[in-house]
Amino acid sequence: MWTLPSPWLPLTFDDGPGKYEDRILAAFQKYGGKGTFFFVGTQAEKYPSVVKRVAEAGHEVGNHSYKHENLPKLSQAGASQSLAKTNEILRKTFRSIRFSGSPSLRSYLRQR
What we know:
Elements: E1 12-16, H1 21-31, E2 36-39, H2 41-46, H3 48-56, E3 60-63, H4 76-93, E4 99-100, H5 103-111
Parallel strand pairs: 1-2, 2-3, 3-4
């Protein structure tokens, strides 16, 4: 069980990387805190330097699928392939990246 500071507000950013991460990182630098960035594989391929900057700044990086697919509509193999491909892209970009994933997604994949 984690003990969280009070007040505590988790900040997550989806569908990147793209054009907003540098401004978000600058705000974190100025005001403090950390966020979780859920990256789409196709975007991570286009903007690997952004992925690296986010990870090097100590933020958590999450997998948001390869092409932003609707994972529950895919087969288990298709969903697993999308997530695995994105994990591979993220690891190539920054080896010591920390991954997070949605508990509901993990539960869904286990049930299929």
